Amino acid sequence: MVENNRAVIENQLLKRLLGLPRSTEPEKEISTSVRLLAEVTGATTAYLELTAGDPPVPRFARGYDAAGADVADVICRGAIALSIAESTLIESKSARSDARFRDLGSVRRNEIEALLCAPIISGDLVGAICVQRRSQGGAFSDGDARVVEYFAQQFAMIAPRLAPSEPAPVRLHDEIRRLQESLVRDALARTKGNVAQAARELHVARSFVYSVVPNVSRPSRSGRGA
Question: What H or E segment, with its residue span, contains residue 105?
């Protein structure tokens, strides 16, 4: 009965993961999928996180804990960092006795035993999906590891939709200055050096530039003639 139940839940999870790229509500689907992942693997805790930048800034996270704990506080951060750094699945039968994690405060405080953590890499977004502490004790199986890795692979395909890249900052005044310099060169070339005519063209051009660029005020003309 237990194996049959796992097969049903795993089938539900795989269907959701396969449907993620076409989902109109991916955030809702991910929340459900994280919970199903915990149920499939027998974990008490599952956590997904995406970050971007250097230093990394959290961009998206979802978690599930059977006891209702704050997942961000109980998850093994060391496993997430190692999984991202090595771009590979991290497995441990017992984080408490694993030399890589045993000295971490989160591991000692939460007495973390078995864990699995797979990296998520999608452009400038990086993160991981982790499960830890099996409700029945013991280590996670090879089948559990494959499911976690598959989850990470499928999620990577929609990660940009959930945490779109922030546009690079544009220094508008610098851009406008360069545009004006280009306008000056073009105006003088068209008028064959006729400064008065070029000035009239530039006045029209400058008015257009400041009318279409939002939140940029015209520079003060108080210093004219100084």
Answer: helix 105-110
Q: Residue 106: how many CB atoms within 10 A of its CB? A: 17
Alpha-carbon gap, residue 79 to 153, rounded angstroms = 18
Q: How far is CA 117 from CA 76, 84, 218, in A?
A: 9, 9, 54
Span 177-195, pLDDT tens digits: 666 667 666 766 777 766 6
Cα–Cα distance list, 191 to 103, 199, 202, 203 (Å)? 75, 10, 11, 14
Q: Are 132 and 120 in contact (CB under 8 A)?
A: no
Lookup: tokens for 187: 């105006």
What is the distance of C-alpha 135 from the center of its chain? 29
pTM of the model: 0.67
d(CA 46, CA 173): 47
pLDDT at 17 over 50: yes
DSSP 216: -
Q: Which residues contact 141 (CB under 8 A, 6 or more apart)?
A: none
Q: Residue 13 is encoded by which pair of tokens?
A: 């999870």
How many whole angstroms separate alpha carbon 34 and alpha carbon 50? 14
